Glucose-6-phosphate dehydrogenase assembly protein OpcA (Raineyella antarctica), 321 residues
Amino acid sequence: MTIEMKNTTAAKVAKALLDWHRERGSSGSGMVHTFVVATDRDDFDEAYQAALAANREHPSRILIVVRDPGAEDGLDAEIHTDSDARGDMMVLTMRGRTVEHPGSVLRPLLVPDLPVVVWWPNEAPEDLLTDRIGKLADRRITDALGAEDPTQAIIDRAYYHSPGDSDLAWTRTTRWRALLAAALDQVKAPVTAATVEAATDNAPASLLAAWLELKLGVEVTVSRTDGPGITAVRMTTPSGPIEIVRIGPDETVYRVPDQPERSVALRRRPVAELVTEELRRMDDDVVLADVLAEMVRQNGQCALDLSGHPGNLQHPVQPSA
């Protein structure tokens, strides 16, 4: 069943959750973090299902925050006692001016002494660390591909990166990077040029190209194709070309010099699988931080003075002259 609470308060929701645990004789222990999903009505269903799927590997208290700033002020809550969640599942609809004060709603509902992870499945605030919800979190996950302008979204992530921030655009490159690293281990010759082929405005392709430039020290070209997503990476070496080419939804060709061509699995992964991967780590992704810093260098110096930003002490971006 679902416990529905209209025009309620965070304190009443917390008490209702505690009463429900007592009724069924459970303490609510065994959870590893609080998982806050900040979404809207249009993307609610996909975000709900992805959070539930990730919860199977990472038991947690899930707080799905639905923002409805155009409605009358107030808070509605649902405690989903019949969900498949390994932990607690709540939907919190913040209406009107309540949207401007999410911290007062969320703080009483966080699991004490456990990390807090926030995920924005679509549009995310420019600066995650100073956002009203983001400042509650130890880990902040965004998805540039859910934004209206994915390229600008990933540039924003680069300029405002703080320890604990990550983006699913980077997670989408995990298997590409693993295959490329394996290929480079087999070919000892230096790479003299490289190309990433991808659909237009593809944020993972921009990140992959920046990573290759950082690791190889060569200029990497991004070539546009019909997609979907990243379709190929080609590298030139004195020993011959290294090529990883996706030729179908479930088939990718892997070519390295002096070895037979072979097929590898490199399917496009669903969002739920990407979120599950991201939740496996609570520490800062220093490789991503370095890649984002490389993107800032590629796009010119940031016009904003972020030197005093609390999250940019490790990888500061100086203002332009």
